[in-house]
Write a structure and sequence with these properties.
Length: 272
């Protein structure tokens, strides 16, 4: 190990001694909801956050019905566009859970639109939720992780952040920004024993892809449950990046290195 810090105990092993403690934003629906249910089923103590309190309460009661091995869930209504509220909520979650082994900045918003129809509100929404909201969530957890000298920070970006996707300019740009941010802090925090993981899903069948369906191909789309299962399993090893499904990961990796004229042609074909 580099640096003066003690080697990190992988937080997955923490669960052998006490339940793992996990904070998830955007857990009122889709991937976040499925993640919360999967973690509670495994016996973790989970804090879930999002704006829609009734939806969060529904997720909590579903979770309590399936909880095993002492799994617990707590609800924290939160708008990630309010940085002060994000900081307070992450701190409160840490106090109530007793620690934070893993913080997952999953809340996000997408849109599918031509640049000619894009308003300034659309631009601000993507920046405020996908970039500022995710970064506030991570930043609020950094001092907690550093004082523990272990833990895992997770951001949910997207394969769409690897190159500019037509009709998704703000979504692609915001997810690309989040991935770059996560990469930088991964290197900075490694000596302190804090792991950072960038999750890059392909198409997941949630309310977010409703605007895409029938307008663009959504190859290898998986259910939110499958996405959560993949994430929970792979997060245990705290890799730098988790990208799925693998065929889309491979194609988008190839796409990254295509010359511009080829990428433009293929992307235009896929979008029309
Ligand atoms: N579905 C896909 O194909 C796909 C692919 C790649 C990446 N992703 C990413 O996966 C993450 C989860 O998306 P999803 O597919 O599960 O979509 P979803 O079902 O629409 O979930 C989005 C979640 O984000 C929350 N959220 C939105 N704005 C928020 C705000 N201002 N403050 C707090 N929470 C907020 C929503 O809760 P409230 O409305 O209750 O606040 C909801 O729980 C997103 O970051 C998305 O970009 C999705």
């Amino acid at each position: 190990m580099n640096g003066n810090f003690a080697p990190p105990a992988p937080w997955s092993n923490v669960s052998l001694m006490r339940p793992a403690t996990i904070f998830i934003t955007g857990a009122s629906s889709g991937i976040g909801r499925a993640l919360a249910l999967e973690y509670v089923r495994k016996g973790a103590h989970v804090a879930i956050a999002a704006r829609r309190a009734p939806e969060l309460a529904r997720v909590a009661s579903e979770a309590r019905a399936i909880a095993q091995k002492g799994g617990q869930i707590r609800v924290f209504p939160l708008d990630v566009r309010e940085p002060r509220a994000v900081f307070e909520t992450v701190q409160r979650a840490e106090r109530e859970l007793g620690s934070l082994d893993c913080v997952i900045a999953n809340a996000g918003a997408g849109s599918y639109q031509h640049i000619s129809t894009m308003s300034w509100d659309d631009v601000e929404r993507a920046i405020d939720i996908n970039i500022r909201g995710a970064i506030a969530t991570i930043l609020a957890a950094v001092p907690i992780m550093l004082s523990q000298q272990r833990g895992q920070l997770v951001g949910v970006s997207s394969l769409a952040g690897r190159r500019g996707m037509p009709y998704s300019a703000m979504y692609s740009a915001s997810k690309s920004a989040l991935s770059t941010f996560l990469e930088s802090i991964r290197i900075e925090l490694a000596p302190a024993g804090v792991k950072v993981t960038d999750v890059q899903p392909g198409f997941v069948d949630t309310s977010m892809v409703l605007t895409l369906k029938g307008r663009v191909p959504t190859p290898w789309m998986c259910s939110p449950q499958k996405a959560a299962h993949i994430m929970v399993r792979r997060l245990e090893r705290a890799p730098a990046v988790i990208a799925f499904p693998w065929p889309l990961d491979v194609w988008s990796s190839i796409g990254r290195f295509l010359p511009t004229f080829m990428y433009d042609r293929l992307a235009r074909l896929a979008a029309l």
